[in-house]
Amino acid sequence: MTPGPRSPDAERSAKLASVIRAEIESTSDGRITFARFMERALYEPRLGYYRQSADRPTDAGDFLTAPETHPIFGRTIARRIEEMWVSLGRPSPFALIEYGAGSGTLGLAILDGLRRHGSDDLLGSIRYEPVESNPYRLADLQQRFEQDGLADRVASSGPDGSAGGTASEEPVPVTGVILANEFLDALPVHRVVVRGGKLLELFVVWRNGADGSAGRFAEVVAEPSTPELAARLADDGNEPGQLAEGQVAEICLGLGPWLDEVAARLASGFVLVIDYGYEAAELYGPRRLAGSLLGYRGHRVAEDPFADVGLTDLTAHVDFTALGLLAERRGFVFAGLATQQEFLVAAGLELELQALQASPELTLADYMRARSGILRMLDPRHMGRFRVLTLERD
Ligand SMILES: C[S@@+](CC[C@H](N)C(=O)[O-])C[C@H]1O[C@@H](n2cnc3c(N)ncnc32)[C@H](O)[C@@H]1O
After folding, report:
1. Which value, to the nearest 10 degrees, does the dihedral of the CA atoms of residues 339, 345, 348, 350 take?
2. Is this structure's pTM higher than 0.85?
3. Whether the CB of 106 sits within 6 Å of ligand 1
4. What is the pLDDT of residues 234-256, one digit of tens each?
5. What pLDDT was estimated at residue 334?
6. Does the beta carbon of 102 lie inside 6 Å of ligand 1?
7. 159: how many CB neighbours lie within 10 A of its CB?
8. Number of other CB atoms surrounding residue 193 within 10 Å
9. Does any ligand 1 atom lie closer than 6 A to the CB of residue 181?
10. Could you give the C-alpha distances from 186 to 72, 241, 332, 394, in angstroms and in order?
11. Of the residues 119, 215, 345, 386, which has the maximum number of CB atoms within 10 A of its CB?
């Protein structure tokens, strides 16, 4: 029987697999790091997961982020941003740079929050700058800000919306807040494993199928591609020898370059990072012997990171110890690490809920939606355990 025609998604995934396979086969040792595989799986122009037109963080997509569950998340963050603005002496203009802005749901909820709070001076001073590598999301974002009458608050994000992009001009450092919600967990990670007490790395190879069956990606273990991996673990106070025998761990070497970019853009102000993740002792501790790499497709965890390449979101938890240390080395001051639950409560989530309940237009359906969204944001088994890192500069 001849196989039927493949869906456009399946076609695209097969094409992406073949370009990654070609890169693997062109190397002298027939393998690439997992970080390189993840980079191409997520960001390959036209083919990668984060280059598609379909909107992923939605009910119909692959995952739901806190801003997508309810605007109360963004409105609560608006309160914290206003406090930051006041502590900086109410500067104008005031930049709000959002990494991984998607279609602007969080940015819109923050500006809407300022409007609701009557923070007109801050709203009038804000220049919202989305940094978003997916051109379809950026187009959605522009359209949504126009519809809400907020297009004049949006500043251009440069010729290539990617973090670490190809902008030829040096950014002019600004005063403001840099925000990243569920952005850093998508940066490519290396994978390491301890074998015979030694730190080794997991590389990606291509295995041809036997007897005409389809080939597939697989992992092999070899000496680490760079001493930076062991150095990062040592830096974290987690000497490679402290990982258990057989333990697998992910290491994101992209954190430093991202912080370089953030340091170059922010003259004074704050950085707020919200994401899946832990401090190193927990992230690399005995409860996570298999690491934290996960794939998501259609709101389900995909066990095999190599299945449906380009159609599956790949994420790994953020190492907040490393992020804090690397930031301090770039002149930032550590200003707090909290769980998302603690952060939202301290920032005034309850006041937002009261305002919502007092709203004359509130329907029962709206109230139920807000309630279930808030439960997800605060639930320690769910998004409530996300970490929120605050950094200060100058
Ligand atoms: C998980 S979504 C989160 C979207 C939004 N922050 C939210 O919380 O709903 C990650 C977003 O980051 C974007 N992104 C991922 N890597 C990026 C990069 N290196 N530069 C710019 N944007 C990136 C993706 O296209 C996607 O829109």
Report:
1. 150
2. yes
3. yes
4. 998 876 667 999 999 999 999 99
5. 97
6. yes
7. 11
8. 18
9. yes
10. 24, 27, 23, 28
11. 386
Structural domain boundaries in the chain: 1-63+190-250+292-312, 66-182+254-276+317-393
pLDDT digits (tens, 9 = 90+) for 272-321: 999 999 999 999 998 899 999 999 887 678 889 999 999 999 999 999 99
Q: What are the tens digits of pLDDT across the range 68-78? A: 999 999 999 99
User: Does 265 contact ligand 1 (Cβ within 6 A)?
Assistant: no
pLDDT for the residue 16: 97
- If one residue of 43, 50, 136 were mutated to test the ligand 1 pocket, choosing by the most ligand atoms within 8 A of its CB, it would be 50
Q: Give the atom of ligand 1 at the shortest distance from the alpha carbon of 131.
A: 21
Please identify which residue in the block is written with the tokens 């909820």.
109
Measured by CA distance, the residue closest to atom 15 of ligand 1 is 100
Q: Which CATH architecture has domain 66-182+254-276+317-393?
A: 3-Layer(aba) Sandwich (3.40)
User: Percentage of the chain with pLDDT > 90?
Assistant: 80
Cα 372 to averaged position of ligand 1 atoms, centre (Å) = 24
Distance from Cα 2 to the centre of ligand 1, integer Å:
39
* Mean confidence (pLDDT) of the chain: 91
pLDDT for position 168:
46
Q: What is the CATH number of domain 1-63+190-250+292-312?
A: 3.40.50.12710
**Residues in Cβ contact with 190 at an 8 Å cutoff, skipping those fewer than 6 apart:** 33, 34, 35, 201, 224, 225, 226, 229, 250, 251, 252, 253
Token output for 140: 């959605």
Q: Is the CB of 67 under 6 A from ligand 1?
A: yes
